[in-house]
Amino acid sequence: MASISSLGIGSGLDLNGLLDQLRDAERGKLEPIAAQQQQQESRISALGSLQSAMTQFDDSVANLQNASLYESLSASGGGETLSTSVDASAQPGNYNVEVNGLATAGTLASQRIVAEPDQALTDAERTLTLEFANAPEGEPTSVDVTVAGGSTLGDIRDAINAKEGVGVTASVINDGEGSRLALMSSETGEAASVTGMTFETDFFVTDPAVTVSDPADAVEGVIDNGGQDAALSINGIAITSATNQVEEAIQGVTLDLQAEGSATLSVEQDTLKVREAVSGFVSSFNELKGTIGELTAYDAETGQAGELNGDRTVRTVESRLRSVLSGGVPGGEIGMLSEVGISLQRDGTLELDEDALSEQVSGNMAALGEFFAGGEATTGMAGRVGEALGQMLDDSGLVSRSIEGAEGRLERLGERYARMEQGVERTIDRYRTQFGQLDGMIAQMNQTSTYLTQQFANLDAQLNQGN
């Protein structure tokens, strides 16, 4: 039988088109599996959204579970004079603060040196010694800076600034008549002040074009402004500080001095943080409820349903949380969420009564903390909600198992799809072989038909000649 290189050549039939139609018909068997894969992918995505919303709610629950929240303090009343920060060791109290002077960094400027900016001031490598007469114990009282020969005033400045741990920042200042080498201590306070600059003999070149002003001249000579410590008093007690950040003068409170003046400082319970934590708890739960509503919605007009409509996992999550939130915390002064100003609405959301919460925050903080964070022998409301969420969110919990189950089904559907797809291709290959055989057979039959037709025509011609 003749070999056919392309279907349809031998028979003249559209066998390729017929083969494509058969392939489409065979692949139609894959559509139900593809639809199931899409369904499982949508469910996995929806469960991921549910898990994310539950995790965010769990974060807000953890804030309320922190017992230190109900003991946190804040400071107020510094005004323009000072700002404050408070840590856990602070104690409530009122303080009168007088800031009499801010800490400043010491400055020291050399005598005026009249020279061109690029004028060399050294004839050889020299040493510049910076002196710190009041350096704290253990700190160096002087620092040597090596200055290369032929250095300009700018080069000297750069050499100082390049010296690690030199304790000052150098600059060049021109007052219109000449330039000075100016130093500013890196830190504030009297002890950090630079008090002198000592040069080696012949530090400056003796070029007549270079004039060194008389150091004794009050205007042209060395200018020394020593650094000052901050001076303040707290409730009449005098305090000095090398910096404008005064720590532990008041236990657990850091004062950042900003201007001279008076301030009345109050350290008291930070009720704002508690109100924000409770409000965040309510808002986060309602966001979770909104996510669940979207995932389980059903539109009767279009017949469209959310990915988790009727899903057992969602029903269990809602039931567990509703049970915990509507339950109480026995043994404490506050036993129910409603006493805090939080009520469960008919649509399943929570509503917060700000006035009722403020009343508890202002006058009953200890009981509020015990209700949410619990005590030595009791688990608070936040702990109970957190435990329920943890059981559902951990690796072996309800939500994780649901996601793993959907992922497993998706994997099995993928394997089934691959097997059926291979089966379709094998079927199409079998059809292609059969069509090739058919094409070759028809081609051979056509050749035979043509041959016979020719033979009959020749025979007929011979018969006609005989007549």
UniProtKB/TrEMBL annotation:
Q: Which Pfam family is one of this chain's hits? A: FliD_C
Could you list this entry's UniProt keywords, alphabetically sorted: Bacterial flagellum, Cell projection, Cilium, Coiled coil, Flagellum, Secreted
What's one GO BP annotation on this UniProt entry? cell adhesion
Taking every annotated instance into account, which residue ranges of this chain make up the domain Flagellar hook-associated protein 2 N-terminal?
Answer: 11-105
The Gene Ontology CC terms held by the record are: bacterial-type flagellum filament cap; bacterial-type flagellum hook; extracellular region
Q: Which InterPro entries match?
A: Flagellin_hook_IN_motif, FliD, FliD_C, FliD_N
Q: What is its main location?
A: secreted
Q: Where is it localised?
A: Secreted; Bacterial flagellum
- Protein family membership: Belongs to the FliD family.
Question: What does it do?
Answer: Required for morphogenesis and for the elongation of the flagellar filament by facilitating polymerization of the flagellin monomers at the tip of growing filament. Forms a capping structure, which prevents flagellin subunits (transported through the central channel of the flagellum) from leaking out without polymerization at the distal end.
This protein is called Flagellar hook-associated protein 2
Q: Which organism is it from?
A: Halomonas shengliensis
The lineage, from the top, is: Bacteria, Pseudomonadati, Pseudomonadota, Gammaproteobacteria, Oceanospirillales
